[in-house]
């Protein structure tokens, strides 16, 4: 019999899988008129990618002059490049407040970035507050809206509000259907809720979009194990370990595989315990 191994149930919904998803080009909605400061902003953003410390210095000088939200967001991008998530979140919040005072529609984007950075920092409460502000503004659309709803769902999961999180994820699947993370988190939540048919359907969508993502393969193994598909679980966990060697994902995948002995797994075998969260 196949053991019901959940190698790394690992709270995919509460911590970032990759650094804050901050796209410089996403900061200005299409309906927003061009600002003469945007050329300097783009130079600052480019600098943040190559030399974050120099970008922070430039943003500080600019903020003291007339940089406003442009300078603050550039500072946030520089801090994010350095993986200083609390500082990044604070800079994005400052950009959001400045943009609100300036009646600039970019404010919601900055608050969404702040929420994403707070998730990266592991502070779901502050993330939720920032994301609430972004969503209440009512100016986000399309992919930006979907990814903000997805982050909001992750903050809700951290607070134990899974029903509300499911509603957010379902909306995100409409607005950000191309994002494999949306399908991954939907599958994870369905598994945790015991809805295996939904979990299998959604992890299949994640696999279509990102078969080379170790986190997706890890969750595919978890779901296969619960569905008593031993071969599928082993294959997915082995692929997760292959794709991301020497990472927490690989460690949990290998631990799960190690629980199968030569005679087959026992249904009473211990569940592998996560050591670190995975997620966006």
What is this structure's SSE topology?
Elements: H1 38-50, H2 52-64, H3 68-81, H4 85-101, H5 107-121, H6 124-136, H7 142-158, H8 162-175, H9 180-192, H10 196-209, H11 214-226, H12 230-243, H13 248-258
Overview of the molecule:
The chain is built from 13 helices and no strands. The chain has 280 residues and is an all-alpha fold. The chain is elongated, with a radius of gyration of 20 Å. 65% of the residues lie in helices and 0% in strands. The chain starts with 37 loop residues before the first helix and ends in a 22-residue tail after the last helix.
Kindly state the percentage of residues in helix. 55-70%
Radius of gyration, in angstroms, nearest whole number: 20 Å
Helix-strand pattern:
HHHHHHHHHHHHH
What is the count of helical runs?
A: 13
Strand content: under 5%
Q: Can you give the mean pLDDT?
A: 84
Give the terminus-to-terminus CA distance. Answer: 34 Å
Give the biggest beta sheet.
none
Instruction: Give the CA-based shape.
Output: elongated
Low-confidence stretches: 1-33, 265-280
- The count of strands amounts to 0
Category by helix and strand content? mainly alpha
Briefly, what is this?
This protein is mainly alpha-helical. The protein is built from 13 helices and no strands. It has helices at residues 38-50, 52-64, 68-81, 85-101, 107-121, 124-136, 142-158, 162-175, 180-192, 196-209, 214-226, 230-243, 248-258.
């Amino acid at each position: 019999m196949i053991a019901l191994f959940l190698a790394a149930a690992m709270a995919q919904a509460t911590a970032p899988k990759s650094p804050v998803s901050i796209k410089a080009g996403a900061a200005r909605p299409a309906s927003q008129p061009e600002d003469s400061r945007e050329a300097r902003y783009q130079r600052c953003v480019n600098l943040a990618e190559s030399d974050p410390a120099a970008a922070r210095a430039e943003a500080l000088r600019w903020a003291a002059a007339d940089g406003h939200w442009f300078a603050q967001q550039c500072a946030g991008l520089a801090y994010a490049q350095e993986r200083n998530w609390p500082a990044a979140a604070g800079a994005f919040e400052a950009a959001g407040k400045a943009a609100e005072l300036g009646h600039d529609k970019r404010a919601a984007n900055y608050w969404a970035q702040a929420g994403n950075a707070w998730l990266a920092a592991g502070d779901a409460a502050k993330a939720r507050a920032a994301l609430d502000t972004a969503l209440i503004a009512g100016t986000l659309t399309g992919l930006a809206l979907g990814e903000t709803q997805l982050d909001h769902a992750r903050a809700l999961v951290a607070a134990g509000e899974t029903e509300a999180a499911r509603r957010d994820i379902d909306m995100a699947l409409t607005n950000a259907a191309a994002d494999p993370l949306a399908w991954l988190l939907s599958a994870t939540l369905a598994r945790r809720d015991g809805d295996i048919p939904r979990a299998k359907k959604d992890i299949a969508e994640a696999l279509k979009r990102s078969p080379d993502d170790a986190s997706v393969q890890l969750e595919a193994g978890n779901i296969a194990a619960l569905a008593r598909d031993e071969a599928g679980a082993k294959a997915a966990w082995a692929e997760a370990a292959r794709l991301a060697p020497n990472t927490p994902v690989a460690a949990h995948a290998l631990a799960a595989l190690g629980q199968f002995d030569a005679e087959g797994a026992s249904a009473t075998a211990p569940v592998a315990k996560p050591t670190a969260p995975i997620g966006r």
